[in-house]
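#structure-requests
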Amino acid sequence: MFALNDNKPIWIRDDEHGFLLGKIIDIGSDNVTVQLINNRTTKVVPYDSIFQAEEYDKDVDDNCALMYLNEATLLNNIRRRYKKDLIYTYVANILIAINPYKQLSSLYSIDAIKRYNGKSLGIMPPHVYAIGDKAYRDMRRVKQSQSIIISGESGAGKTESAKYVLRYLTESYGVHNGQIEDRINESNPLLEAFGNAKTTRNNNSSRFGKFIEVHFNNKHRVVGGYISHYLLEKSRVCVQSKDERNYHIFYQLCAGASESTRRELRLSSPDNFHYLNRGCTQYFCNSQAEKLLSKTSRSQDFISKGPLHDPQIDDLNNFNECNQSMDQMGLTTQDKLNIYSTVAAVLHVGNIDFEDNPESTKGGCKITSTTEKSLSITAEMLGLDQNDLRNALITRVLMTKTTSRSKETVIPVPLKVHEAQNARDALAKAIYIRLFDQIVAFVNKSIPFSSSTAYIGILDIAGFEYFPINSFEQFCTNYCNEKLQQFFNERILKEEQLLYEKEGLGLKKISYIDNQDCIVYYLISSYIIADVLCLDLIEAKTTGCFDLLDEESKLPTPRPEHFTNEVYNRNKDHPRLNFPRKSKLRTSRGIRDDEGFLVQHFAGSVVYSTAQFIEKNNDALHVSLLSLAQESRNSFIKKLFSKASEHEQSVGKLNFISVGSKFRSQLSDLLNKLRQTDISFIRCIKPNLQMVPNLFEGGQILSQLQCSGMVSVLDLMQQGFPSRTQFSELYGMYKSYLPKELAKLDPRLFCKALFKALNLHDTDFKFGLTKVFFRPGKFAEFDEIMKSDPKNLAVLISKVKKWILWTRWKKAQWCVLSVIKLKNKILYRRQCLVDIQRHIRMHLVYKRYASQIRDLVKVKALYEQVSSMEKIVRQMKFNKEKVYKSVQKLRQRIDQLINEITNRSVNSTYIDNAYNELVSLIDREFRRLKHVLAQQEIKEEEHLKKIQMELEHEKTKKIAEKKRLEQEQEEFRQRSAIAQHQREQAQLESKLTADETKYQKKHQVSQTDEEGRFAEINERERRDYDLARRLALETGDEADLPQLQQPYRRLINQKYNLNRYSYSELRDLINTSCDWELLQACREELHQRVKLFYAWKSKNQKRKNSFALNNRMDEVDEQASKDILNNTVPPSMTGGASMKKVGQLMTANSKKPSSGKVGEQRYFRVPFNRPNDQNRDTHVEQKKKGWWYAHFDGKWIARQMEIHPNQKPVLLVAGVDDINMCDLSLDDTGLASKKGAEIFESDFEQEWLKHNGREYLKAHFRHISSKYVVQLLQNYR
């Protein structure tokens, strides 16, 4: 039995638990078979669904400290910490917060606040206080405002986290017992009462977004604050689902108000109010509060089912807290009564009902007799005349102008029942919205600030929402979350990588699923690339959903069906838009195409029902109602509607205000404000759907982590440097700790000296152009070292001085070398100037004496003829001295003429005559010499024959020597056959055309793009399925499984489909099959599987992280020499007919056994270092290179041997040790073209036998897959 992955556990993806532990028991063509550890069942999954597990059972504060950093280990670390009530975890500088759904009072005590005060991130355990303190310290350090973005799903604990951050800032950096600080904290109960409500997923869900600014003065103390709010859910005022409630204030007022107040406001049980009795009417209260609850305030559901329970909510006590909060804000008793009266008025407005009026000839309606009392109470509380209010609710007015005069005519138009109900609901929503605005204004007025140098903003906004029926509120909320997710991508992923590139850190880019196309989708034409067509699905002008909704609302008869069809028509072929029938949730597929649309958000696909989009997008309030409220006798109501006239349109039309446009404008302002600040992120996670403590639902938590971008952050932080600071800032932080001689250093030199003195590992930091970057947690360690005891600081300073002296000495050496180089350059240039002067002088002289020089040259040429005559004279045997004297006279004549030309001024005619005379004399003498020489040649004939015989003898001797050399080189030529083969192979490879190479590169790029596209499609499919599955668990519905896609993998052998065979079955086939074609197909399939397995293993290898155990650099074990793995040859360069031709040329190592069909046998040897020894700080003797031997039987390796000094040799044989052997084919390794790698069979066998290779083969005889090795073993015997 062989062990895959060294029998180590791995994580396998699971819908319910997120991931489960298992072990790999088989590897397939595109997948692996895993046996689960808990129940021993097996699953077949693709490679992208399994991840390496930690080898040690532990949890860490920062997920970047994990040995294997992936989404599985991230989830497991969070799970382990959650079981210990450790709800906070870091991913670098990002905080993950799990909602515990129980009180952890000791975690947020005053002592806890003091412990985190002034501590760098990473020194203390993860906490929301640490993020608050980091924001404050960054604000002081860089003198820039900060923002903390708290995001997550509904019920994840965003509001509570925001409250704890506020408390930390005011307690730590405010004036103790200060009124401003108390008001900032006490504003939360008031805002929660009017802006929070119970939903099916969160008992205290914020139905609005808020951005809280805490302002600081020049002394960095809290001086005030400001709250901006966004998109309060208006529709909740009038209607809620069965298990949800209206805003808390309605129930708190009914339960907690005094008896006299309830009588004055005509309040009773929630069952008696139309705006409350269609939802949940139970109160939140504990056993003590239940006893204090008035019987007249109890609903039937409360009596039969009892109260609702939540540790954070109690309607009775929360009303008292809200009342106290108003007192803290400085509101008077009359102000509070006005607020409560307005809230009660909204409830009474909802009780007004309508019926058809039989007396109306225009189909109008009237108020029912049973609700006349509610009309009277409403008119009294709003300060309106009862008849005026009745007429405004059942009619609307049209104002017309005559052509002759400018007078306006009022025409009353009766309203039908549903139109009157809409007008009533619009009035209730308008009152409550303006009341909420006034509450926020009260809070801002109570926390003013006169001067502010910076602020820390805390953003708490509704998380991503998805329900069985999603309407306009969910559309706006999810649009907001899309923008925030895009901002997160830009700030954390895009800008981080751009900063690395700008600073020159040289880190690879990280891919992530960008949601830009959901907000702005670009389609680039293949013909005109410059033409970019923007198809903004949500916010584009004229084609986006918001603009289409506004256009539809302005039509005379707007219809939701027409709006839905326009969305489809204007955004055809958009990748993020689809029909409801494409949803994975079966109930959503029942929505017709013209009743809704599906949007693929970053978190998953959501189906929106457009039935109420138009109504909810309009702040539709009749002019008659608006005018009536503006003329109210109640000063408070009149003040609420005082600004309404600014938006008033022409008389007779609806006062149309687009909610979507207003929200988009607010969101744009918010994002601009965030971009001007430094950002910290808190990602809140909801542990379970039941909202109970100690229940960890891994599947839905993993979905939240993926949707929040944390998985992409893991990839970035794996090689990233999240902490960074300017050189000057780092210098300023520690300048006070240093002596004067070091405090004068240049900031960059100071940082380098400091890091060298601290012996910081090079992998823990990187120097950019303007900043120094730290690995996660390393900045905090550095800070602690710098602020340590004085003795350690003194040692550190001495090290800094030593390093500075060393660097200055090196710089001095470099300066000396530079001076020497400059001196040599000056000398070289001086010599060049002398040469230039010399050549110029020569040119001037030549120009002056050109004619004389030409005559001298012509005369001196005669010396050559005289010299030829002298040679002939030396060959003469007779009268040699006499002839030699006559030749010398000619030479003297030439010398005399040259002397005359040089020293005397003679004319050219004289020179020509003398020259001609000399030429004729030389010719006569030359002819005479030739005649004498011809006579002498006759006598030399016999002598020449003798020389010829000697030459023939020498030639015979050379031929014999040549034959002897050829015989000596015969053996050398045989040994050079391998080198000749390599040269011919290189020549064949060089003949590949440029088109083939270009095609191969294009094919590789397209294959990579295809794999990336499939990965993105599969990720979106998984997210859609996770979202649908979570919704199905809530509603009892069913969700369709994701349709995962994989790139097409060509069958290795078209004749045999080997995908159905397991890894062990393939090995058995190789060992037992006699079919040569099947055997080759099995071997190729086997090696392909091993190759894919090791590709996954390499991708999921241990991190080279200083956090790893014993600070060792962990690496994945290699199956072959690193030199081979780094120099693999592309298949296109080694395949095809060219390789067949090369194979025919190679015969040096070929063996033809007596039986069986065996391929070509080739042997190789390359040097290598063992992976475990490469990074050890050992002696030189222990770093000697070893040797890696390989025997290839055809394309695939048959035997492998590793020999290393002072270590036991490793012998491997195909069929026995396949999983540990080189998984590359001979062509892929590039060994055939590696110079000096190929050896003779005798050399390999000598080493094999020397290290007990024969015994190893005997011990595993039955499992050997190579037939050649089997026959070789028989020869051994």
